[in-house]
Amino acid sequence: MKIFEEKANVAMYIIPKIKEVSVQGGGLVTWGLIVPEEGGFAPVEVSLEYMRKHKPFAGGYYVRYADGYESFSPPAAFETGYTRVS
What we know:
With 86 residues, the chain is an alpha+beta fold. The chain has a single domain (2-84), classed as CATH 2.40.50. The protein has two helices and eight strands, in the order βββββαββαβ. It has a five-stranded antiparallel sheet with strand order 7-6-2-1-8. Strands 3-4-5 form a three-stranded antiparallel sheet. The N and C termini lie close together (10 Å).
């Protein structure tokens, strides 16, 4: 994951833009899989609770803050609020 910095200087980890989001678990949905657009990044497994709360979609961004909190950011909000630092 790459490290980005919010304009308020909060460290976070993020995968590149999301290419695909899918639900997993066979006939009973139990978790989600977020696949990044850019090669070299592994897909990220997220909980069913994350999927229900954040409703991630292709084109957006998966964000994990330094304290472990996971979030989702739509493209316009993310691209105007964050800057790549490494």
